[in-house]
């Protein structure tokens, strides 16, 4: 027997277009202020889009307003992560999915490069040990 939450609901305006709850524009303002802070103070910012009260169409509208830039990165670490720079330098979309392909996080990062791309100190220490071992083999 179908459950209520299994019924797809699409909200449309009288002209047939999908409604937005108006949350894209306030987030765009937040991104603007975060980009200003990053430019003047070097303050990194991360906005978790999954925690925001987006209504139907809000996320799509925000992503459309941000556009796509020149950089697109795909990483495979416990599932696929897709990272792309928006049309605004320093504003990045980071989309994390688990091994089953389900979205587990969707974030906007404001900074030179998303933090997930940076090597972690523990990984660097491990790399030094492995490289030293390889050098001893030869």
From TrEMBL:
Gene3D superfamilies the UniProt entry points to: HupH hydrogenase expression protein, C-terminal domain
Domain HupH hydrogenase expression protein C-terminal residue range list: 23-136
Signal sequence bounds: none
Pfam family name, one: HupH_C
Ranges in a coiled coil: none
Top-level division of the source organism's lineage: Bacteria
Family of the protein in this entry: Belongs to the HupH/HyaF family.
Protein name: Hydrogenase expression/formation protein
Species lineage: Bacteria, Pseudomonadati, Pseudomonadota, Gammaproteobacteria, Chromatiales
């Amino acid at each position: 027997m179908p459950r209520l939450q299994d019924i797809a609901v699409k909200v449309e305006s009288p002209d047939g277009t999908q409604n937005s709850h108006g949350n894209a524009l306030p987030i765009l303002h937040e991104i603007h202020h975060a980009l200003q802070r990053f430019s003047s103070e070097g303050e990194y910012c991360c906005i978790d889009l999954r925690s925001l009260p987006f209504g139907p169409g809000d996320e799509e509208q925000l992503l459309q307003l941000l556009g796509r830039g020149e950089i697109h990165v795909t990483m495979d670490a416990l599932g696929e992560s897709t990272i792309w720079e928006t049309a605004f330098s320093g504003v990045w979309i980071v989309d994390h999915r688990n091994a089953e392909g389900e979205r587990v996080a969707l974030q906007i990062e404001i900074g030179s490069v998303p933090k997930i791309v940076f090597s972690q100190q523990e990984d660097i220490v491990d790399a030094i040990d492995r490289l030293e071992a390889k050098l001893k083999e030869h």
